[in-house]
Amino acid sequence: MKLELRGITKRFGSLVANDHIDLVVQSGEIHSLLGENGAGKSTLMNVLYGLYEPSDGEILIDDVPVRFSGPADAMAAGIGMVHQHFMLVPVFTVAENVALGAESTTFGGVLNLEETRKKIREISAKFGFDVDPDALVEDLPVGVQQRVEIIKALVRNSKILILDEPTAVLTPQETDELMDIMAQLKAGGTSIVFISHKLREVKAVSDTITVIRRGKVVGSAAPSASTTELAALMVGRAVNLTLDKAPANPGEVTFKVSNLTVMNDAGQRLLDDVTLSVAQGEILAVAGVQGNGQSELTEAVLGLQKHVLGSITLGGTELVGKSVRQILDSGVGFVPEDRQDDGLVGEFSIAENLVLDLYKHEPYSRRGTMDRAVVAKNAVDKVAEYDVRAQSSQDAADTLSGGNQQKVVLARELSRPLKLFIASQPTRGVDVGSIEFLHKRIVAERDAGTPVVIVSTELDEVLELADRIAVLFAGRLMGIVPGKSSRALLGLMMAGLPAAEAQEQMDNQAKEANGTDNSNGTGVQP
Q1: Alpha-carbon span 459 to 490, nearest angstrom
Q2: Is residue 399 a contact partner of residue 389, using CB atoms and an 8 Å limit?
Q3: CA distance 245 to 391
Q4: What are 149-197's pLDDT values in tens digits?
Q5: Distance CA 115, CA 320 (A)
Q6: What's the half-sphere exposure (Cβ side, CA atoms, 13 Å) at 109?
Q7: Using an 8 Å Cβ cutoff, are 43 and 122 in contact?
Q8: Using CA atoms, how far apart are residues 302 and 31, in angstroms rounded to an integer?
Q9: Are 334 and 425 in contact (CB under 8 A)?
């Protein structure tokens, strides 16, 4: 099925989100839409999916103009969409979620899910999804939840599939699996619109690349184009894809975690006897596949976990047992992994979000009353300093793109003197231009003498930022290694091998490859 967009324009008041965009997606093609967060990619796809009505322009399917009054019309025309934030009901089963909106009933109005289960099993077998129709969605890993979203579209016979930032919430392993799924869908004749800001992924999977900047198409490229060329098209300037970072100059060790254990309500150990420390002026990156205790570690430091054993000290002061407010006031800055749920109050203004943990203190508050003029002035300054792209600092935070939301959180947390800075998934869902900016700010905080802890499932980011790397697996610390350690070593540790065993395995593999470990003991291959 061929898709064509001609002159699509979408205005929100005076804001032009899409400006006369032309796009052609051929049948059985993976067409990537590349651009910074806020460039207008998701708005364009929401127009295509019937969530927004275009201000101008037309949509054609197989050269026939169509108009959509809502997603149901788009689905009926063969278009399916997997949103960045999944549209699933957590307490429903897979089959119930897939049937939702297209339910069939037996005589008497009883919901009939058997046909849905059958279709789920058929699609799972065809593409190797391994999805149980009767599993509760809330019990599924993020990568499997995404497969459920894809199944929802395929069950409705979608011939054009829109994937909106599909890897933003996936681990590297899940991302590779998604790429395989996309290749299978393409081979089966499905046209795919792949929305992303990740250059490596776009180059790996695309047939055609269209670049959007500030609502306009600024160029197209072949997958063979260099990452430097693509980044420059996205941002409108040359982008340094390698972080220019001086060696760390560690000072006193002021942050210590000793024998830390975190348990859930059932007594299961989510974090098991973890000990680590961070010096002033260094970055410790915590690596691992998502769900191996990283969230519990950062939440324990912030006082968000209920069942905690062991010790966490900052400058000699014990943090275990203190409230979140006390911990923040002690000089801890924290960027949570989910900025929408935990980092921002979406309906509050940008200005208000920039003082969420500061509003009780001078100069933002006087005699118990918030000084709104000071809050507004602070917002104007921070929006400019951190290049937050918004019409006004009085706009609601949930009107911002993901990258700009992340800048607001970072600006708030770095707006006061810190004794410890923790950032969990600091650039998740953030475009290449913003990543460069955010990484520089994190390194600047390190260079100012602050102990910094970064939690990331992106190995590129870990290797870019870290002075030392701690790897967690199943809640246990596999070891702490230098920041310049190899991907192979980190991969073995992320799979559950302690650092010493992982290094030994790598050494043995190197010996075998060099012919120094063989059956005749001569050092020569037989």
Answers
A1: 9
A2: no
A3: 33
A4: 999 988 888 899 999 888 766 766 677 888 988 999 999 899 999 998 7
A5: 52
A6: 0
A7: no
A8: 42
A9: no
Q: What is the pLDDT of residues 424-461, one digit of tens each?
A: 989 876 767 678 888 999 999 999 999 999 999 888 88
Q: Calculate the alpha carbon distances from 255 to 84, 451, 480 in Å.
A: 35, 7, 15
pLDDT band of residue 367 (cuts 50, 70, 90) is: confident
Question: For the segment 499-526, what is each residue's pLDDT rounded down to a tens digit?
Answer: 999 999 888 888 888 875 444 443 323 2
Nearest alpha carbon to residue 5 among 64, 59, 78, 69 = 59
Q: Amino acid letter at 176?
A: D
Give the span between the Cα atoms of 39 and 46, in whole angstroms. 13
Q: Beta strands 468-473 and 476-482: pairing type?
A: antiparallel
The rounded distance, in Å, linking the Cα atoms of 114 and 117 is 5
DSSP-assigned states of every residue in 328-376: HHTTEEEE-S-IIIII--TTSBHHHHTTTTTTTSTTTEETTEE-HHHHH
Task: Pick the closest to residue 225 from 209, 249, 213 (CA basis).
Answer: 209
Closest CA to 82 of 35, 145, 25: 145
The span from the CA of 75 to the CA of 155, in Å, is 11
* Domains of the chain with bracketed CATH: 3-235 (3.40.50.300), 240-331+417-526 (3.40.50.300), 339-416 (no CATH)
DSSP sequence for 235-287: HSS----S---PPP----EEEEEEEEEEE-TT--EEEEEEEEEEETT-EEEEE
Instruction: Please give the DSSP secondary-structure letter assigned to residue 111.
Output: B
Degrees to nearest 5, angle at CA 177 with 176 and 180 = 90
Name every residue whose Cβ is closer than 8 Å to that of residue 108 and which is 6 or more positions away in sequence: none
DSSP 225: S
Residue for token pair 């972080």: 243
Q: What is the dihedral of CA 51, 157, 217, 437, to 10 degrees?
A: 80
d(CA 287, CA 10): 41
CA gyration radius, the chain: 25
Side-chain-side CA neighbours of 496 within 13 Å: the count stands at: 1
Q: Which two tokens stand for residue 269?
A: 């150990």
Beta-bridged to residue 32, according to DSSP, are: 194, 209
Could you please report the per-residue DSSP string of 71-86? Answer: HHHHHHTTEEEE-SS-
- What is this structure's pTM? 0.68
| DSSP type of residue 485 | -
